[in-house]
């Protein structure tokens, strides 16, 4: 009996909603007919579908790749503390690496993050190890712009914390990422690199996909593009995150997402990505 009554009430409510919808539609049509400027013989306005930004397309692709590998997807603030952006990443005030990152400082002493690496510190404080996570987002540098440099660009930071981590784990993950995103065979090289928050540190370079290694303004005539600084997490960073480096280890990377977009779609100037030109964005419409 209760079910029967509920069905009757549901039918009555649906009928009332349908009646009211028809009444409102009729009122709207009548309003248009009463408008002396309304011409029903004119063709309808063209409906155009919007486009996802190429950075959004690649970000979603990368998120799918890392989700499949068991990574958390995390989002952290673009306004950071000096402690998280520098001190917690083994970059004290007297460290020369501070000069490598021209910073937008705010009046309250905070700053616009210069990299997505502060996510390492936040994630270690937030999650109990072992864990693995990525944190994509915008970063900001106070520097001159050219074909391969912009004051606002995108990165994806990755972090894996386990009890036994090696460089082999790092390289395998990076190869999986690049091959999945670019969807083609790409020549890469791994060379030593210095970053205060990893030890040892590496530079993973990709052969320029715009000039195919011949040299252009994007790769500064070198044929290679620095894409992915990476390495094993420095013990000082682990300590700052509240972990014992004698027990836990990990690897981290900072992927230049904007540059990866340029390589994926063979875009010759990074400034196109932030210019807001609809003609540029519309090229990436799906379907």
Description:
The chain has 287 residues and is an alpha+beta fold. It has eight helices and nine strands. It has helices spanning 2-34, 54-68, 82-85, 118-126, 167-182, 235-240, 257-265, 278-281; strands at residues 72-73, 79-80, 111-112, 131-140, 152-162, 188-192, 198-207, 224-233, 249-256. The strands form two sheets. A seven-stranded mixed sheet has the order 1-4-5-9-8-7-6, sandwiched between helices. A two-stranded antiparallel sheet has the order 2-3. A hairpin with a 5-residue loop joins strand 6 (188-192) and strand 7 (198-207). Helix 2 crosses helix 5 (167-182) and helix 2 packs across helix 7 (257-265). The mean pLDDT is 87.
Distance between the termini: 51 Å
Number of strands: 9
Judged by helices, strands and strand pairing, the structural class is alpha+beta
In percent, how helical is the residue content? 25-40%
Flag low-confidence runs.
none
Task: List the secondary-structure elements in sequence, H or E.
Answer: HHEEHEHEEHEEEHEHH
DSSP helical segment count? 8
* Major beta-sheet overview: 7 strands, mixed
Dominant shape: extended
- Sheet with the most strands: spatial strand order: 1-4-5-9-8-7-6
Beta fraction: 15-25%
